[in-house]
Amino acid sequence: MSIKTQKINKMMKEMFKLQNHLNNQTNGEQWVDGVTKEGRQINWKRCIYMEGSELLDSFVWKHWKSIDNPDDIENAKVELVDIWHFIMSDLITRYHNEFSIDEIAEIARMRYEDNLEDDSWKEKTLIELSEAIIKNAINGEEVTKEFFNMIKAMPDFTFEDVYKLYIGKNCLNQFRQDNGYKDGSYIKLWNGKEDNVHMQQIMEENSDIGFDLLYGKLGARYKEVLGM
What we know:
This protein is an all-alpha fold and 228 residues long. Helices cover 64% and strands 2% of the residues.
């Protein structure tokens, strides 16, 4: 296994473990069977295509409106990472009876490796690639190929960037859950800026930051907001 492959493998395993943990905490461990601890149905494919519509709206597609505006590439990257949360959740649900979390992460890595040879994305626009994700999700199909194609087509975006953004968003989601997000006691505005802005600032200031260190720095800033 090459150094590059080892790096991708490590990132995949970390993200799948974090996603599994977050889903366990927010929905209960029976989420893998398609239901929350409150008894509500979970439909990850619906989550994917609804987020896919937000991804699509990052691009200028309305022929009657804002035709001179540039595509919002940075927002598209964030939307892609949101979709990745749901893709991982869907893969865990699909394979949890047969494989461990590490093994499911390995399946995702192999999907990624296989996709490196696929150049079909070059013939499509970002809008068409977004629609491919939405279409497959609506049809109940796996969307890993379409997702990885979208990453390759995005300017200045790599799987390593997906990993960094995912770690940031997952850590913030975990921090919110631990500090009263569900019962409404959590404060989202920190000194006039949303918590996700602070998260991004911390990550920009610390290029190699990991989950634990980021969580600690979020906690330190939040204490300032609470006056502690």
